[in-house]
Amino acid sequence: MKNAYLIELLETVKKRNAGEPEFIQAVTEVLETLEPVVEKRPDLVEAGVFERIVEPERQIIFRVPWVDDTGKVRVNRGFRIQFNSAIGPYKGGIRLHPSVYIGVIKFLGFEQIFKNSLTTLPMGGGKGGSDFDPKGKSDAEVMRFCQSFMTELSKHIGADCDVPAGDIGTGAREIGFMFGQYKRLRNEFTGVLTGKGLTYGGSLARTQATGYGLCYFTDEMLKANGKSFEGKKVVISGSGNVAIYANEKATELGATVIAMSDSNGYIYDENGIDLAAIKQLKEVERKRIKEYVKDHPTATYTEGCSGIWSIPCDIALPCATQNEIDGESAKKLAANGCFCVSEGANMPSTPEAIEVYFANGMLYGPAKAANAGGVATSGLEMSQNSQRLAWTFEEVDAKLKGIMQNIFASCDAAAKEFGMPGNYMAGANIAGFLKVAEAMKAQGCV
Ligand code: NDP
């Protein structure tokens, strides 16, 4: 980065948010790609948009006490970061994972601003979560935690103010418990959460949306570069919501998914992963992925996560967590002939990995564009809730596909307009930023 104004701003961000490396990483990436915008748009600098956009509008941290099955009191920490409401109510998921702290939630909330803007739907950026780990807890314990979490969160959210959704560790079960508690506390039935069950206001295709959307975006990127999913070998990390439906759509588009993982290790099967078995293991039985090899003799299981990137493949879809592909893993992917990395997870590639993608001429689909299908469909769930209507699966899926095609087109166009053709990361950051920046400027210094 050469621009003195941006260098100074980044220094301030680093000082003010010391001890939050993920947040600093996310801000650095965005500011670096906004250099040409700073040069072209002095009016946005004058309006203080850059200084304001890196500071959350509101940060809420709270105690979450609950009682476990043995009668012991447990205490977790809850977060909600209401980052930016320039273009709509705050919108973003709730992450339940032991690694959660303020820096993770802030990086996710910051990314969400640009992602939501790219969808073209009226949604601001927010994110929440807790260091609670649902793994190994009984349904009753998860329910008591979710009720306690929502007891405080309910004071800060609402259908026209802030609409949380799922993320790592927060699936249909957790959303159900949280929604039930919100309704009980507020005595109102509104679309305050998305990712709801189909019997109480959820949208068809929301479950599939992030994974399907990732493949729709990737397909557009491949086609624009004379390639396709047809006949390609695909490696997908994770085996949660995003990974499962990315597998389903990539397979439908003609690819073979040869590896998947969880936080303990990965499975590899050159004949293709049996997705029905993964769904049964992960969605129904909540078991570890290593169980898969018991009934699949051609598959192998390897302990540890990062080895998955040493498997030769054409396309890599990281769908687990942040910074899961480092520079070394990226080099292995490139050396083995992988020509495309498209991100289902948020910020799964380290800055060093991204450098390797560009240095090797690989196609790179950045998370805030490639995985925006989840929040886009959450936006569609909000529309259906407001209209008191439910659209068919086909209607929602067609809208999702259209949105992902538009997102690719705007990233591509912005990258070209600002002199970086083919750099979809810069394109996504610039296109996402400009809409929010115009709204912030128009609304004055707030
Ligand atoms: P899930 O909880 O359904 O699945 C997460 C998967 O990633 C699991 O297989 C999990 O393994 C693995 N994982 C989680 N943490 C780690 C870790 N620290 N190291 C290695 N593996 C890990 O979450 P989602 O599928 O919903 O989310 C996955 C990613 O996609 C996240 O980055 C999320 O922010 C992003 N995303 C999700 C959206 C959604 O709609 N759900 C929308 C946009 C982005 P294990 O079971 O062992 O923990």
Q: What's the order of the H and E elements?
A: HHHHHEEEHEHEHHEHEEHEEHEHEHHHH
Secondary structural class: alpha/beta
Q: What is the CATH first-level class name of the domain at 209-370?
A: Alpha Beta
Helix content: 40-55%
Which second-level CATH architecture of the domain at 209-370 applies? 3-Layer(aba) Sandwich
Whole-number average pLDDT? 98
- Measure the end-to-end span: 28 Å
Radius of gyration: 21 Å
CATH fold-level label of the domain at 209-370: Rossmann fold
The main pleated sheet reads as: 7 strands, mixed
Specify the number of helices.
17
Task: Please specify the SSE layout and strand pairing.
Blueprint: H1 4-16, H2 21-33, H3 35-40, H4 42-46, H5 49-53, E1 58-67, E2 73-84, E3 90-96, H6 102-118, E4 124-130, H7 139-153, E5 162-165, H8 172-186, H9 206-224, E6 233-236, H10 241-252, E7 256-261, E8 265-268, H11 275-284, E9 300-303, E10 315-317, H12 327-335, E11 340-342, H13 351-359, E12 363-365, H14 367-370, H15 373-387, H16 393-417, H17 424-442
Parallel strand pairs: 3-4, 3-5, 6-7, 6-10, 10-11, 11-12
Antiparallel strand pairs: 1-2, 2-4, 7-8, 8-9
Bound molecules: NADPH dihydro-nicotinamide-adenine-dinucleotide phosphate.
Task: Write up this protein.
This protein is 47% helix and 15% strand. It is α/β, with parallel strands linked by helices and 446 residues long. Strands 9-8-7-6-10-11-12 form a seven-stranded mixed sheet, with helices on both faces. The protein is globular. The model has no long low-confidence stretch (mean pLDDT 98). NADPH dihydro-nicotinamide-adenine-dinucleotide phosphate binds next to α10.
